[in-house]
Amino acid sequence: xxxxxxxxxxxxxxxxxxxxxxxxxxxxxxxxxxxxxxxxxxxxxxxxxxxxxxxxxxxxxxxxxxxxxxxxxxxxxxxxxxxxxxxxxxxxxxxxxxxxxxxxxxxxxxxxxxxxxxxx
Length: 120
Prior knowledge:
The structure is a single chain. This protein is mainly α. The chain is built from six helices and no strands. The protein has helices spanning about 1-5, 10-20, 35-60, 65-85, 90-100, 105-110. Helix 2 runs parallel beside helix 3. The chain is flat and about 45 Å long.
């Protein structure tokens, strides 16, 4: 996600992850920047849409699962920001474990599985 690679501060990155963890926040208050507000609003809108649409296909609420997938991706990207800030070079195993999540394939493929076929 460009947000994490685009020069935002560690506070902004952490604030975004916190907002998704807390979830039911006022989208107009308590943000450390306008960028965080915009990105959180977009993520929340996308997750809500996926939850509503997934409910129609799956006949059950999938919002918490979709939210957790996005939260995993955001935490993984935050870890990379922290590594960069601390000038830390992860081991190959650390990097690959984190990269498998930060690559965001889960938030793309797993979420769409709710819309393309049988009930999961």
